[in-house]
Every structure is written in structure tokens, then in C-alpha cells.
Design goal:
The structure holds 3 protein chains of 3 kinds.
Chain A (H helix, E strand, L loop, with lengths): L24 E10 L2 E11 L4 E6 L5 H9 L6 E6 L2 E3 L4 H7 L1 E4 L11 H5 L6 E2 L2 E2 L1 H14 L17 H13 L5 E5 L7 H16 L3 E5 L3 H7 L2 E6 L2 E7 L5 H10 L18
Parallel strand pairs in A: 3-10, 3-11, 6-9, 9-10
Antiparallel strand pairs in A: 1-2, 1-4, 4-5, 7-8, 11-12
Chain B lengths: L12 H19 L4 H4 L3 H14 L5 H17 L6 H25 L8 H15 L9 H24 L5 H20 L4 E2 L6 H11 L4 H28 L7 H23 L13 H19 L1 H11 L1 H6 L4 H27 L1 E2 L1 H6 L3 H12 L10 H20 L4 H25 L5
Antiparallel strand pairs in B: 1-2
Helix pairs in contact in B: 4-18, 5-12, 5-15, 5-17, 5-18, 6-7, 6-8, 6-15, 7-8, 7-15, 9-15, 10-11, 12-13, 13-15, 17-18, 17-19
Chain C lengths: L16 H14 L2 H10 L4 H13 L6 H17 L8 H25 L8 H16 L4 H24 L5 H20 L5 E3 L5 H11 L1 E2 L1 H29 L6 H23 L12 E2 L1 H18 L1 H11 L1 H6 L4 H26 L3 E3 L5 H15 L10 H20 L6 H26 L7
Antiparallel strand pairs in C: 1-4, 2-3
Classes of the chains: A alpha/beta, B mainly alpha, C mainly alpha.
């Protein structure tokens, strides 16, 4: 399953080591419609542990729907999902969490009036003798933040409302990662951030990958995509029109796939995943 | 269009189909939002489109019309005197206060706010106008007393409006505090005793008294009806004709004709009912002045909300304040004016209230508190949404009629006042529940 | 772990500290200045740092309990000057204020639970009165504890009903509780047996005497001192040990001197209260001395709710829903469940307040005892002026206690002034004005804190 890579990962090298290893998450033929509107058509996708996959697509291509389907918010109408080789039905966010799938949505879902520790443990607080075990929660949160090298926060008891955009994003990601997660989905993590904060978040994403997690990043920003992604997947009008190692793409081709569904003026080859059985 | 298959089993044409399918569906969902008048070519089409809209969640005046029918039938069964001419005029008279307060409340509700002080603005207005015409006191002429009272109410509205609009304090807290302060001020103005306007020797008091209890003569009533129906009908017809000439979308002729006919029928029924002699002794006939007052307020506020920029902005703020702000609408100004208008109409209701009660005591002022609940209930029952952006003044009038009917009917049955309050509370809850549930049907609401 | 106990989050082997601190400075500059103030307080190492940071926080808008404390001083001084014979601060009057305030304290704590959710409960006044009447009536035939529990349970059911309508049907809480206010006011009259009816406690019967004594009974002076010592000792030791443990583990904790000062303040307040209560407020023939039972009762309520709000999941979720309901929902919190429970517990606590109110007014309940509308307005004013935010997510049980004391002081102070015909209208104007002032302060302070202003 998870291949242990000794060599330090380098963003631009792409993840060609995945050849031969099983993807952590496999989507095959996923269809999803809302009433008469079809949002996803026969989508295939592979996400590998220790890899960052960048998901691109224009507005309305179906990126959010796909993310929410993996996260358990939507159920696919057809198709199958395999997690760690086993077929699974993800019926709710809790199911997804139980599998080890965590999602960080664009609005971050943080309560400004609670502090960092309280936000990170929201919904999953530890108790001691029936009361909240503040001390152990604070220790664990601190450890998570420091292993992720989130270092710019002055105090872990700061209310989240007082943090900058990049710090909030880091807290949201740390919250997702704290729970024995294996796959992290990030929806537009750098959308509202400035240069310095974007750097913080991208470094954080790389550290997630270094820890062996599978990461999927949705982004409009091709610079960010190309900086962190080992693999790139492009959605166009609900179809996965291409998927492959990042090294196989350049900006031009990705843009063409996003806006026309093909590249170099010719139709794309049906996307074949590295571990596809056919 | 280039081939975009990720799955070789799909034909290339599938992509085009997908796009077209997506577009058509958007149209289907949007169809329910389009006012039926705009797309209908005939009466039959209009009715079908209107029914589709009702089923889509925007039922407009249908619930309140149904409620009126239900109330009328139930209470008539319980007490055959309910639909007698005498009782009906009584009902109209009582409902007039609720109708005015409901219209006042609607100005706040449309913004997405609430005005809990309408009952006490009415109460304060009533004691101020009564005190001002006292011959032993201020002894002002009736018209001066009324004008000053209304100005004072506008001032109250402006203060509350400023707190809400500029400081963004929650309107229900501002108007809750406001109602308390007004209650205290009203009691101070009353001076602990009572004030009455029932003494017909004094001209000013008599005029005030007649505002509620007086009526047009039957002949004048008919003339007024003819004038009003004629004017409104002609106005509607000409407006449609002008739009048709310019090639704009217009409702079918038969629809406009139907509206005018309905209005005429309702007016005739009203005048006929009012012209029946309703006195036990002697003769009292004719349409009461207050009905004309309510119609004037209704007409003015309808024009204000539907046909002016101000009204357009009110709906915009209620629908999406941020969008309105970015479009350049001055939110504080519009908001303050809405609270001023609300207080003004409540003040008019106060003049009517003083006229109705004839003598005002501290207890009556305290009871004025419950009127706000009735006003909100009337507005919501009539079809105005608690969340802002949706509602019309005619809703307030119809809702006020329902509330008045319930009160009248229960009172005829001998139900004691605290139980009537319980019933009204239940009706308010039901109306709010319907409002919330109907919003769920509408697209885009959480 | 650093010697000062602050969590070291800066150094990782192999990385230059200088690089990190540059990023740190850059990142911090992007935060709002108020945030810096709050953070400084958290990382303060000494008393003077703590005080400086706290003052900065106040100036940036988050003033906590300072306004209500200042208001108390202003009210005390003002009334002391203007009451006839300067009697406001006389011990007997102060004890009366304590007693009256307990009702507002309990009601304000109840309202706080709902305010934290960014909702409002306008029916607390009516529910409180119904709770009191139910308890009094039941005490005529049931044991006192059963009567009280039954009344609280009934109120809880009323609250739950309102909670269901708000949380599941999504009808705005102010409409539901406004209707509830009307409904329960009507039922109150029915239970009282008509508009002239009343329910009185017969103090010759033991069960009813117990309820009566909840407010009117006193703890003898010596016992009061002993009780004070025990309570202060327990609270103080707990606070100290907890802070020490946190410091030992390197978690965020205030400097030791701050903890010591907090304990000293608690002791000081306790000593003052007991001393005032121990002054003989009766006559030479029949001396009345000692702490009324109602004060420890309210302290227990305060303690329980502080624990629930601060140290339980339920309390945590109240703050979360008030701060960001969507975040809470995504975290798996059951919004409808928490909301319903909040309304239920609020009403139950209000019922307790109603029982205390009846006992305070010598065990006589009639339609003249209290006006439910006035009660709720005083309650909301007490909560807000104590520091609870109307917009949700901010507030503590202690705020309700402080605000309740202030409102009780104002209410009683006004009645001490012989204002003749002005006294009735003032009963309306004053709570209205206090409420507006309290909310004004809340709104203005929020503006200073730079949080999102409504459009």
C-alpha cells in the first residue's frame, strides 16, 4: 500500500515512484447528478499516499462536487470508490473521518470566538472524568502544530479570530491532520492569501506529503499547483479529461485541458491511471 | 466542439447534449420564479403559471385568503350573527387598527428588521393627541394636535431608526427598549389619571371622536366608490394599454378586466354592508371614515413601495443588503426612513385608537403592548416574510382582517381575553411556521 | 520546555532561529492590533506584563467585566448621594439588594445560555413566574424537593418545546419566545385561578417553610464565617493547583501572582458579603443576622453553570454554534440537539429564579408580584451589561451574576427614592434605558474589536 520513499521528496520531481504501488483512493466511473443537471460523468481518479495531486478545472467543472463526494457529503449515483484497496461507501462526513479522509473547505469552518485548541478538537474533545480534558488537548494540539512546523502562532490559546489568513489556514489543516488521517482534501487553500502566507501553506502541504499522507489540492492558481503537485488531474464539464504525473504537463497544456477539454488541438487519450487494472 | 471523453464508451455528441441539458434545466427552475403575468398570453396560461408558482413555494396571498374564508365559515357556523351587516362593520372598524399597524410593521419587516414598538407608538400617539385637545389643558385645535402628534411619532421613529441604521444595534432590542421607554412616557403624559375625548360639547373633541365613529352618508359612499373604482380601473387599463403600445410585456386584457371587476365587486359589497342601518336606536348608515383612512394609507404605502426608487431599495436591502450597498444604495437613509414611516403609520393608528377608546387609562396603555404581536401576526399571516425582502402592504390589510375576524369571533363566543391571546400566539406561530416552510420550497434558501 | 512554561514553538533543529523570527514578525504584522493585545496577555510572564497587556486589551475594545464593575461603582455612589438619609449603602438595604438581585442573577444566567447561541428567549420572565407558582402549589401537598424538581421539569419542557420550534422548524427564536411569552402569561393567570387569584406559602407547614426559607432564612453568623472559609479555601486551592499543574506541564497559564490576586479578590468579596450580612438588620428585640440561604444557593447555580459552560462538551458547543454554526455542524455537532437542550435548560433555570422570586416576596404569588415583560427586559439588560454578547459566542455565567447585581441595585435604588407619580413610569423607562445603554456599549465595543460588523 503505502510505499516508503527514502529519498527526500522534491516538488518538481513528480511522483513517478508511484509506478506499481496501489493508490490509497481509487474512484472508478463516478457519476453524480442533481436533478436533471449532471455534475460528474464517469470520473476516474487515483490518489496515492505520499503524493500531492493537484485538481484543476474551470468554474462549474465539478471540482467541488468531486471533493464533496469523496468527503461523504454527496453520494455518487454510479461508480465505485476504493480505499486502501477495499470498496467503500462513504455516506457521511463521519464515515469519511473513520476511513481517515479529512477535508479542509474553502471557508475553513473555524469558530472565531474559540481558541486554536478548542477549534482543533471541535466535535472530538477528550474528556477526563466527564469534563473536558483541557490539558491533554492543549498538549496534543501543540505537538501537531510543531510537527507541522506551524511556528508563527504566538500562543496556542489565542482566539482564532485574531489570526492572520495564513495562520487560520494552517490551523484548519492541522485540525484535519491531527486525527490519524491518511487523505487530506484541500479546497482552494491559498485563495485569499498573500505571498508570505501562501508560502506558509504550500510548505505545510509539502510537509503533509512528507509524512506519507495523500493530499489533493484544488486550486485555480496554476503556480501553486505546479509548485506542490506530484500529479495533476483536470476536470472539464464533469469529466476527468486528463490525469498524470505533473512532469507531463506544462501551464499551457493544463489551461487548454481546463478550457477546451483537450490539448494541442486534438482530443486527449482516455486517462489511464498508473495502477488501473483496466 | 472538441472531444472530451474520459471514457471511450461515450459518443462525442454527448458533450453538446450535456451543455444543452444544463441550460434547459436552468430555465425550468427559473420558470417558477418568473411572475406569471410576464409570460402568460391568456388567462388560462396565467392561471396555470400562477399555480406553478404557488407549488414552487411562493404562495403570496393565497393562505390569507383561505384563512379569511375559514374564519368566516367557522365563526358563522358558531354564531349566525357573525356575518350580519352590523357585526361586519364592527369587524371592519376593529380591524382597521390591526391593518394600519400591520402596514407599519411591514415597513420594518421588508428590511429584514422588526419594530416591536408599534403598539406603544400607537399608545403614545393616542394619549398625546387626546391630551392636546383637552379644553382644560392645552386646548389645541384638532388639526394641530394631530399634526404635532404625528410629528412626535416620526421623531421616535427617527431615533430608533438611527440606532438601528447607524449603530447597527439589533432592531428587536432597540424597539424593545423603545417600547418600554414609550410606555413610561405615555404614563407620564397621562398623569396617572385618564383622558377622554367623549365630550361632544367641545368641537375639537367631537372631531376626534368622529374620526372613528363617524361615517359618510350612503349617497356619498356610493359616489366615492364610483370615483375610486373608476379612477383605479381607468388607471390600470390605461397603463396596460400604454405598455402594450410600447411592445412591453403586459398581462392579458382579460386579467386586468378581472382585477377591475373584482375590485368593483368588493367595493360594492362593502358599501352595501355599510349602508345597512346598524344602529339599535335611530340610524347609523354609510361607510365609516376609517375605511377611507385605511385605504388612503394602503394606497400611499403601496405606491411608495412598488412604484418609487425608495421602495425598490427597501426590497433590495431586505433581499441582499451587501448587494444593495455595493450598488450605491444608502442603507442608513433608507432604514431610518422605514422606521420613521412605521412610526408615522403607528401614530395614525394612535389617533384612531384614541378615537375608538374614547377614554384612555394607564391600563389601556399597558394593553397596547399586545398589539405588536397582532401586527406582526397580521403581516406574517398576510404573506410578508420575517426574513425580509418579500411582502406587500395588501398583505397587511388582509392579515389584519383575519386577526380582527378571530378577535371578533372569539369575543362573540364569550372567550376571555387571556385565552384570546393564547389563540393569537398560536396563530402567529402557525403563520411563522408557514413562512419558514414555504421559504424552504423556494430555491436558494437554507 | 522553556523555564517560563510558554510552549516553545520557534526552534527546530537545523533551522536558523533568525529566519523563523522574520516570518514570525511578518505574519504578526498582518494580524489586527487587538489580536496582539490579547496574545500579549496570554504570554505574559510577570504581573506587570499581564496588567499592561490587559489594559491594552481593554482599550482595543474587549473590556470584559470592566464596564459592569465601573457601573456598579457609579450606581452605588450616585444612589448613596441621592437617597433620603443616604441610606443606599446601609447594610440592611444591601442585604435586601443581594436578595432581590439573586432573582435577576439566576434569570440572567439562564438567558446567557441562550444568548451564547446568538438566539434570545423572551419568555424567561413568564416561565419563571409559572415555575414559581407551580412549585408553591405543589408544595402544599408534596415534599418540598419534589415540588421544586417538578416545577423545574415543567419549565424545562416548556423550554424544550420552544427549542424544538426554533431549532427544527427554524422559526426565529424571538418570534417563538414572543409567542411563548404570551402563551405562558395566559397560562399563568389560569394557574393562579383568575386575574385576582394568588398562591401563598403557608409557613406553618414544613414543606412550604423550607421553600420560604430558601430566601428568607439565614445562616447564623458563626456558621457563615466557617462556610466562607471552607468555600474560599476550596476554590482557592483548586485554582492554585490547576494553575500550578498547567505551569508544570508547560501549558499556557497566567503568572503565579495573577492567580494569587484572583484568589485574594474572591476572599475579599466573600469577607465583605459575610460582614455586611452579619450586621444586625433587625431590631434590638429581635436580631436578624447572617447570610441568607439564597446567597450560597445562587453561588451553587453559578458554580454549576460555570462548570457546564467552561468544562463540558455541551458548553463548548454552545460557544461554537454561537461563533460559527457551520463550523460546528461540519465538526459533527448536532445543532438542533444542542439548541433544544439550551432552551430547555434556560427555562428550567428560569423556573428556579421564579421560585426564588416568590420566596423573596414573602411567599405570595399574585398577578401583581411581577410583570413578566419587565422581568425579561431586566434579565436581558443584566446579561448584556454584565458582558454577554447579543451576537453570540461570548459570555460567562459570572457576567450574569454581576449584571444581575447591578440591575437589582438600580431597581431597589429607584424604589428608595420617593418619586411619587414618577415611580410607575420610571419602572418602565429605566429598564428600557438601561437595556439600550447596555446594548449600545456592547455594539460599540465590538466595533473597537474590529470584528465583522453587520451590513
Amino acid at each position: 500500500m503505502t510505499e516508503v520513499n527514502e529519498a527526500p521528496k522534491d516538488a518538481s520531481s513528480g511522483g513517478d515512484e508511484v509506478g506499481g504501488s496501489e493508490p490509497l483512493l481509487k474512484l472508478r466511473g463516478i457519476d453524480k447528478h442533481f436533478g436533471p443537471v449532471q455534475a460528474l460523468y464517469g470520473v476516474n481518479l487515483d490518489l496515492f499516499a505520499g503524493n500531492v495531486t493537484g485538481l484543476c478545472g474551470d468554474n462549474g467543472a465539478g471540482k467541488s462536487v468531486l471533493t464533496r463526494t469523496i468527503a461523504g457529503v454527496h453520494q455518487p449515483d454510479h461508480g465505485q470508490i476504493f480505499f486502501a484497496g477495499q470498496p467503500v461507501h462513504i455516506r457521511s462526513a463521519r464515515d469519511a473521518s473513520a476511513l481517515g479522509i479529512e477535508t479542509v473547505y474553502q471557508d475553513l469552518a473555524l469558530a472565531d470566538n474559540l481558541d486554536i485548541v478548542q477549534n482543533m478538537f471541535l466535535g472530538r474533545e477528550t474528556l477526563r472524568r466527564g469534563l473536558l480534558d483541557e490539558d491533554s488537548m492543549e498538549i496534543k494540539a501543540g505537538e501537531t502544530l510543531s510537527t507541522l512546523r506551524v511556528t508563527t502562532v504566538r500562543s496556542i490559546r489565542q482566539p482564532v479570530g485574531s489570526l492572520s489568513g495564513g495562520q487560520r489556514q494552517s490551523v484548519a489543516v492541522a485540525k484535519a491532520v491531527m486525527w490519524n488521517s491518511k487523505l487530506v482534501l484541500l479546497d482552494e487553500p491559498t485563495a485569499a492569501l498573500g505571498v508570505v502566507q501562501t508560502r506558509q501553506v504550500l510548505d505545510l502541504i509539502k510537509r503533509l506529503r512528507d509524512r506519507g499522507l495523500a493530499v489533493m489540492v484544488i486550486s485555480h492558481n496554476l503556480n501553486d499547483i505546479f509548485e506542490v503537485s506530484d500529479r495533476i488531474a483536470v476536470l472539464y464539464l464533469g469529466r476527468m479529461v486528463t490525469e498524470g504525473p505533473a512532469a507531463d504537463f506544462d501551464r499551457q497544456s493544463v489551461v487548454e485541458y481546463m478550457t477546451t477539454g483537450g490539448a494541442n488541438g486534438r482530443p486527449s487519450e482516455p486517462a489511464r491511471s498508473a495502477s488501473d487494472e483496466g | 466542439m472538441s472531444d472530451v471523453t474520459s471514457d471511450s464508451s461515450q459518443a462525442p455528441a454527448g458533450a453538446t447534449d450535456a451543455t444543452t441539458v444544463a441550460d434547459l434545466t436552468a430555465a425550468h427552475e427559473a420558470a417558477a420564479d418568473v411572475p406569471p403575468e410576464l409570460v402568460a398570453q391568456s388567462l388560462g396560461q396565467y392561471l396555470r403559471a400562477w399555480w406553478a408558482r404557488v407549488r414552487g413555494g411562493d404562495s403570496g396571498v393565497l393562505p390569507v385568503v383561505l384563512a379569511i374564508v375559514v374564519v368566516a365559515i367557522s365563526f358563522q357556523i358558531a354564531n349566525p350573527k357573525f356575518l350580519s351587516a352590523q357585526n361586519l362593520v364592527n369587524l371592519f372598524e376593529q380591524s382597521s387598527i390591526y391593518m394600519l399597524l400591520a402596514i407599519a410593521e411591514i415597513f420594518a419587516l421588508l428590511l429584514g428588521e422588526i419594530d416591536l414598538s408599534v403598539g406603544l407608538v400607537m399608545g403614545l400617539g393616542s394619549v398625546v393627541v387626546a391630551e392636546l385637545v383637552q379644553p382644560t389643558g392645552a386646548n389645541w385645535p384638532w388639526w394641530a394636535a394631530i399634526i404635532v402628534t404625528l410629528l412626535a411619532c416620526c421623531a421616535v421613529g427617527a431615533i430608533q431608526g438611527m440606532l438601528v441604521a447607524r449603530l447597527r444595534m439589533p432592531s428587536f432590542i432597540v424597539t424593545l427598549g423603545g417600547l418600554l421607554i414609550l410606555e413610561g412616557v405615555a404614563i407620564i403624559v397621562l398623569g396617572g389619571g385618564l383622558v377622554g375625548i367623549g365630550n361632544s360639547q367641545y368641537k375639537n373633541e367631537l372631531v376626534l371622536y368622529n374620526i372613528f365613529w363617524g361615517a359618510f352618508t350612503p349617497l356619498v359612499s356610493w359616489i366615492l366608490l364610483a370615483v375610486i373604482v373608476g379612477a383605479t380601473g381607468t388607471g390600470l387599463w390605461l397603463r396596460d394599454a400604454r405598455k402594450r403600445r410600447s411592445g412591453l410585456e403586459t398581462p392579458p386584457r382579460s386579467l386586468t378586466a378581472l382585477k377591475i371587476v373584482l375590485m368593483a365587486v368588493a367595493g360594492i359589497a362593502l358599501v352595501v354592508i355599510c349602508n345597512v342601518n346598524r344602529a339599535h336606536v335611530g340610524t347609523i348608515k354609510g361607510v365609516p371614515y376609517i375605511i377611507a383612512i385605511v385605504l388612503i394609507v394602503l394606497g400611499a404605502s403601496t405606491v411608495l413601495l412598488q412604484r418609487t426608487r425608495f421602495g425598490r431599495y427597501v426590497y433590495a436591502i431586505g433581499g441582499n443588503p451587501e448587494a444593495a450597498r455595493r450598488a450605491g444604495v444608502r442603507l442608513p437613509t433608507i432604514r431610518i426612513w422605514c422606521f420613521v414611516i412605521s412610526a408615522l403609520i403607528s401614530g395614525i393608528a394612535g389617533v384612531l385608537f384614541a378615537s375608538w377608546q374614547v377614554s384612555l387609562t394607564t391600563n389601556i396603555i399597558k394593553a397596547a403592548n399586545s398589539y405588536v404581536l397582532l401586527a406582526v401576526a397580521a403581516a406574517v399571516i398576510g404573506g410578508t416574510s420575517l426574513f425580509g425582502g418579500r411582502g406587500k402592504t395588501i398583505h397587511g390589510v388582509l392579515g389584519g382582517l383575519v386577526i380582527g375576524g378571530i378577535y371578533n369571533g372569539l369575543y362573540l363566543q364569550g372567550v376571555s381575553s387571556q385565552w384570546i391571546d393564547v389563540v393569537v400566539a398560536a396563530v402567529l406561530l402557525a403563520a411563522a411556521a408557514i413562512d419558514v416552510l414555504s421559504r424552504r420550497g423556494a430555491p436558494g434558501q437554507a | 520546555m522553556g523555564p517560563d512554561g510558554e510552549l516553545p514553538v520557534t526552534t527546530v533543529p537545523g533551522e536558523t532561529a533568525a529566519v523563523e523570527s522574520d516570518t514570525t514578525t511578518a505574519a504578526d504584522l498582518t494580524s489586527a492590533p487587538e489580536a496582539a493585545a490579547e496574545v500579549r496577555e496570554l504570554v505574559a510572564q510577570s504581573l506587570s506584563q499581564y496588567l499592561r497587556a490587559w489594559w491594552l486589551k481593554v482599550r482595543s475594545g474587549d473590556s470584559g467585566v470592566l464596564p459592569v464593575l465601573l457601573a456598579m461603582v457609579v450606581v452605588a455612589v450616585t444612589f448613596q448621594i441621592i437617597t433620603p438619609q443616604h441610606s443606599f449603602l446601609r447594610p440592611s438595604n444591601l442585604v435586601y439588594i443581594f436578595g432581590l438581585s439573586t432573582v435577576y442573577m439566576v434569570l440572567a444566567i439562564a438567558e446567557t445560555v441562550v444568548l451564547l447561541l446568538a438566539e434570545i428567549d423572551l419568555s424567561v420572565g413568564a416561565v419563571a413566574l409559572i415555575g414559581g407558582v407551580i412549585a408553591f402549589k405543589l408544595a402544599q401537598s408534596w415534599p418540598w424537593w419534589a415540588a421544586i424538581l417538578a416545577a423545574l421539569a415543567a419549565c424545562g419542557v416548556f423550554g424544550a418545546l420552544q427549542g424544538i420550534l426554533t431549532a427544527r422548524l427554524k422559526i426565529p427564536s424571538f418570534v417563538v419566545t414572543l409567542a411563548g411569552f404570551l402563551l405562558f402569561s395566559g397560562i399563568l393567570i389560569v394557574v393562579l385561578g383568575g386575574a385576582d387569584g394568588s398562591v401563598n406559602l403557608d409557613t406553618s407547614k414544613f414543606n412550604q417553610l423550607v421553600i420560604y426559607d430558601l430566601v428568607q432564612g439565614v445562616i447564623p453568623p458563626v456558621t457563615s464565617w466557617v462556610l466562607l472559609a471552607v468555600v474560599v479555601g476550596a476554590v482557592g486551592t483548586t485554582l492554585w493547583l490547576r494553575a500550578a499543574r498547567r505551569r508544570r506541564q508547560g501549558l499556557v497559564a497566567p503568572p503565579a501572582s495573577v492567580t494569587a490576586i484572583r484568589i485574594a479578590l474572591v476572599a475579599l468579596v466573600g469577607v465583605a458579603v459575610v460582614a455586611i450580612c452579619n450586621v444586625n438588620r433587625g431590631t434590638a428585640l429581635k436580631s436578624v443576622q447572617g447570610v441568607p440561604w439564597v446567597i450560597p444557593i445562587v453561588l451553587v447555580v453559578l458554580g454549576i453553570w460555570t462548570l457546564v459552560l467552561g468544562r463540558t462538551r455541551f458548553g463548548r458547543y454552545l460557544y461554537a454554534i454561537g461563533g460559527n454554526p457551520e463550523a460546528a455542524r461540519r465538526a459533527g455537532v448536532s445543532l438542533a440537539g444542542i439548541r433544544t437542550w439550551a432552551f430547555a435548560l434556560c427555562s428550567a433555570t428560569a423556573g428556579l429564579g421564579g421560585i426564588l422570586l416568590g420566596a423573596f416576596f414573602f411567599g405570595q404569588y399574585s398577578t401583581n408580584t411581577a410583570d413578566p415583560g419587565q422581568l425579561v427586559l431586566y434579565t436581558v439588560a443584566a446579561a448584556v451589561i454584565g458582558g454577554v454578547s447579543l451576537f453570540g459566542g461570548r459570555g460567562k455565567a459570572l457576567h450574569g451574576v454581576l449584571g444581575g447585581l447591578l440591575i437589582g441595585g438600580i431597581a431597589y435604588g429607584v424604589s428608595l427614592l420617593n418619586l411619587g407619580s414618577l415611580s410607575t413610569p420610571l419602572q418602565y423607562i429605566l429598564p428600557g434605558a438601561v437595556l439600550l445603554a447596555a446594548v449600545l456599549i456592547d455594539v460599540l465595543s465590538r466595533r473597537g474589536a474590529g470584528s465583522v460588523t453587520r451590513v
